[in-house]
């Protein structure tokens, strides 16, 4: 397999490619928090039987007002349902987003581990990479895992 990487190459990428790369990065950042929240809500429901605002704040290391603002955005996006005195529930769309995010995380983490990255570092790094990886790259990662 040949490598396309050449550290001595100093050419700029084409303007259209540059724009596309920045657009994709902005889009990924926009959805990153949504994905992290719905994945955590899904985990809390699975592990503890319920997802509460206080537990989300504690797990993410943020204040409850910060969580409350995001939960309102998730409701507006149709990803969760808030039920007074009963906690938070994912909609079908929220469940789909949580499952897709978890799948990407697991694939990226597995690739990093296969490349020799320690399990702890791979878990942490995958948390950021999972939101920015394209479907093409994710498919290549899956092929890499199948072959190695």
Structure description:
The protein is mainly alpha-helical. The protein has a single domain (21-147), classed as Arc Repressor Mutant, subunit A. 69% of the residues lie in helices and 5% in strands. Strand 1 (80-83) and strand 2 (87-90) form a beta hairpin. The model has no long low-confidence stretch (mean pLDDT 87).
Using brief descriptors, characterize the structure shown.
148 residues, mainly alpha, Arc Repressor Mutant, subunit A, two-stranded antiparallel sheet, 2 strands, Transcriptional regulator MntR
Secondary-structure topology with pairs:
Elements: H1 15-48, H2 53-60, H3 64-76, E1 80-83, E2 87-90, H4 92-114, H5 119-129, H6 135-147
Antiparallel strand pairs: 1-2
Helix pairs in contact: 1-4, 2-3, 4-5, 4-6
Estimate percent helicity: 55-70%
Order of H and E elements: HHHEEHHH
Adjacency order of strands in the biggest sheet: 1-2
Profile the largest sheet. Answer: 2 strands, antiparallel
CATH homologous superfamily identity: Winged helix-like DNA-binding domain superfamily/Winged helix DNA-binding domain
Strand elements, count: 2
- What integer is the average pLDDT? 87
Radius of gyration over all CA atoms, rounded: 18 Å
At the third CATH level, what is the topology name?
Arc Repressor Mutant, subunit A
Low-confidence stretches: none
- Main CATH class: Mainly Alpha
Q: What would you say the CATH architecture is? A: Orthogonal Bundle
Q: Assess the beta-strand content as a share of residues.
A: 5-15%
Number of structurally distinct domains:
1
Distance between the termini: 13 Å
